[in-house]
Amino acid sequence: MADHLVNVTPKDTQPEVSRPDPTKVLAGDPVHTTWNIEESDGHYCGVWQSTPGKWRIRYDEWEYCRILEGISILTEDGGVRTTVRAGDSFVIRPGFEGTWEVLETTRKDYVIRL
Known about the structure:
mainly beta; Jelly Rolls; single chain; 9 strands
């Protein structure tokens, strides 16, 4: 029998630790920890965390995020600046280019669709 309900908690998944490409880092030394919960047919979901820093981002995919803790600022090229904090939910659409700045270690749930 297949499991159709998956508990989405980082404790059940081995984390992946990484850093942004050094050529994209604008400030600090951000460390990313990702707990991938599900990967299937171009859909991904899990929990992501970053320590403080600022780096360039470019999205080719759709991503839904819900901030669980911390404070970050997303700034789209052209000047739209959005501060996100615990409790905030948002969608990043393909084509978004700008920066992600983590002011306080930030953890988010995410769902990505390629």
